[in-house]
Design brief:
With about 475 residues, the protein is an alpha+beta fold. The protein has 18 helices and 21 strands.
Length: about 475
C-alpha cells in the first residue's frame, strides 16, 4: 500500500482510469489547472497542467517546519541583497568563470556606483525542500535551493486543492478529501506586489510582468494578475524587446513603457542566459534596474539566490553575520541545510573534488543556473569533474549532499502519456513575500506552498522541464 492510500484504490486499474478521466475533465471544464503552450506549427492550444492522481503523504511536523522558517529566509535574502561586501566576497570566484553571473554582477556594481533609485524592495521567493529519510531514519527537512526570481507555480498550486478534493471524493475517500489544505499562494504573491505598488504612490502606474516570447505557463501568471485586477491594479505584459523599443526613463528616473508609468517590474523572465538574446537585452535589464520602478527581484536579490551564495551561507559563522543576536533563528535555518562544499581552487576545493570522484552517488553537482534540468548526478559527476578538476572552470559549480527521500507510489497524469503506477519522489516549495521600504520591513509572510512530484527514475527537472507534476500534501 502507498502511504495513506488504500491498495483497493491505488491498484484497481479500471477505477484508476475512471478517476483519471474525471480528474482530466475537472481540470479542463472547471479551469482547475490550465496552461497555454505552443505547438510546433505555432497554433495555440490550452491543455491541463500535469498532476498526480492522488495527493502525496507528507509528515505534518516537517511541513510546519518548512512554513515556519520561510519568514526567516525572506529576511536573510533581503539582508544579503543589501550587503555589497558579502556578495562581492561570496561571488568573487564564480564571476571569474561564469559569464552569466558576471554580467549580472556588473549590473549590480553599476547600480551601486550610481546609487539606488528606489528604496522600496519587493521579494517573492520560493524555498524548495526534500525530506531526507535514508537508513530508516525519521524524515529530515533539507533545502534544495531558494528561488529569488520568477518563482513559479504560485498560481496553479492555488487550484490543486480543489482538484484532489474532487478525486478523493470520487474515490470514496471523503475523510481524506477534507484533510487537503487550503492553499492560495497567488493571493499572497499579489498581496506583496500590491503593497509595493501602493508604496510607489501613483494610482495611474501599472505592474509590468516581464515575460518570455513563448510562454507555456501563462495561466500560472494569470492567477496572480487576476488577484491584482481585483484590487484595481492595472497589469501589462511585456518582453525584453518591447521594453527596449518603447521603454525610457524620465528626468526623475521613472520608468515608462509604451507611455505608461511602471510602478513594479515583476520578472517572470531573465533568469537564464538564453533569456538575454542580445546586448540590447542586457541594456534593457540595466535600464529597468536604474529606474524608480520597484523591481521583483532587484539585481542584489537576484544574486542572493545563486547557488554559490547558498554554499557560502553553510560555512560556520556566516549565518551569525546576518542574525548576530538571534541564535534560535540561526538554528532554525541551519537545520534545513544539506552538506554544501566549495569547488574553488585551493586545498578545500581539491578535497571536495576527491570526495566527489570517490563516491559520486552521494552528491549533486550544481551550476549557477535556474529553471530545472541543470544539475549533474552519479557517474556524470566524474565525467564532468575529471575534465575540469585542475581548471578554474570548476569554480562555476558547487557540490551538495544528495538527499534521499522515501518513494511513494502514485500516478502521474500528463497529456498523451501512458497511465501507469510509478515510484515517486516529491519536493516541497514554500512561497514567501516581503516588502521593505528603507530600513522598515512592512510585510514579511509565508504565503503558501507547492508540492511537485516526479518519477524516481528521473534525477533532476521540474514541471516546466517536463519531468515533475503538480501535487498536494496530505498531512500525516
Amino acid at each position: 500500500m502507498a502511504q495513506g492510500i488504500p491498495d483497493e484504490v491505488l491498484m484497481n486499474t479500471a477505477l484508476i482510469k475512471d478517476l483519471a478521466d474525471v480528474a482530466k475533465d475537472a481540470a479542463l471544464l472547471h479551469g482547475v489547472l490550465m496552461r497555454a503552450q505552443k505547438t510546433p506549427n505555432s497554433s495555440e492550444l490550452v491543455s491541463y497542467a500535469p498532476f498526480t492522481l492522488f495527493p502525496t503523504p507528507v509528515p505534518k511536523a516537517v511541513f510546519l517546519q518548512a512554513l515556519a522558517v520561510q519568514t526567516h529566509y525572506n529576511t536573510l535574502v533581503d539582508m544579503i541583497s543589501q550587503d555589497a561586501e558579502f556578495l562581492q566576497e561570496a561571488l568573487a570566484s564564480t564571476i571569474e568563470v561564469d559569464g552569466f553571473t558576471a554580467r549580472l554582477f556588473r549590473i549590480h556594481q553599476q547600480i551601486l556606483k550610481e546609487g539606488r533609485s528606489q528604496s522600496i524592495v519587493l521579494g517573492l521567493n520560493r524555498s524548495d525542500f526534500m525530506l531526507d529519510q535514508k537508513d530508516g531514519q525519521a524524515a529530515s527537512l533539507k533545502q534544495i535551493e531558494i528561488n529569488t526570481i520568477a518563482a513559479s507555480f504560485g498560481g496553479l498550486s492555488s487550484r490543486t486543492p480543489d482538484l484532489h478534493r474532487l478525486v478523493l471524493k470520487v474515490a470514496g475517500r471523503l475523510e481524506e478529501s477534507q484533510r487537503i489544505l487550503d492553499n492560495n499562494p497567488a493571493a499572497g504573491l499579489a498581496r506583496g506586489i500590491a503593497k509595493a505598488w501602493e508604496l510607489y504612490g501613483s494610482e495611474r502606474a501599472v505592474v509590468m510582468f516581464l515575460v518570455e516570447e513563448n510562454q507555456r505557463n501563462i495561466f500560472d501568471h494569470r492567477y496572480v494578475e487576476n488577484e491584482l485586477w481585483k484590487r484595481n491594479i492595472r497589469t501589462i505584459r511585456r518582453r525584453f524587446e518591447d521594453v527596449s523599443k518603447t521603454g525610457n526613463l524620465d528626468g526623475n528616473k521613472r520608468l515608462f513603457v509604451d507611455g505608461q508609468e511602471v510602478a513594479v517590474v515583476y520578472f517572470r523572465n531573465g533568469y537564464m542566459p538564453q533569456n538575454y538574446m542580445s546586448e540590447q537585452s542586457w541594456d534593457t535589464r540595466l535600464l529597468m534596474e536604474r529606474s524608480q520602478a520597484v523591481k521583483c527581484p532587484d539585481i542584489g536579490t537576484h544574486l542572493a539566490g545563486t547557488k554559490k551564495v547558498q554554499q557560502v551561507l553553510a560555512r560556520p559563522g556566516v549565518l551569525e553575520r546576518f542574525f548576530p543576536d538571534q541564535p534560535q533563528v540561526v538554528e532554525q535555518i541551519r537545520a534545513t541545510f544539506a552538506g554544501l562544499y566549495t569547488l574553488d581552487m585551493g586545498p578545500e576545493g581539491d578535497t571536495t573534488v576527491k570526495m566527489a570522484l570517490s563516491e559520486p552517488d552521494k552528491f549533486v553537482l550544481k551550476p549557477q543556473r535556474e529553471g530545472g534540468g541543470n544539475n549533474i548526478y552519479g557517474s556524470e559527476i566524474c565525467q564532468v569533474l575529471e575534465g575540469m578538476k585542475d581548471s578554474t572552470e570548476r569554480m562555476a559549480f558547487i557540490l551538495m549532499d544528495k538527499i534521499h527521500p522515501r518513494p511513494v507510489q502514485n500516478y502521474l497524469l500528463r497529456q498523451d502519456a501512458p497511465l501507469k503506477v510509478s515510484n515517486c519522489l516529491s519536493e516541497l516549495g514554500v512561497f514567501g513575500a516581503y516588502v521593505r521600504r528603507g530600513k522598515d520591513m512592512v510585510m514579511n509572510e509565508c504565503v503558501g506552498h507547492l508540492l511537485r512530484t516526479k518519477s524516481s527514475e528521473h534525477s533532476d527537472g521540474g514541471v516546466a522541464a517536463g519531468v515533475a507534476v503538480l501535487d498536494n500534501p496530505l498531512l500525516i
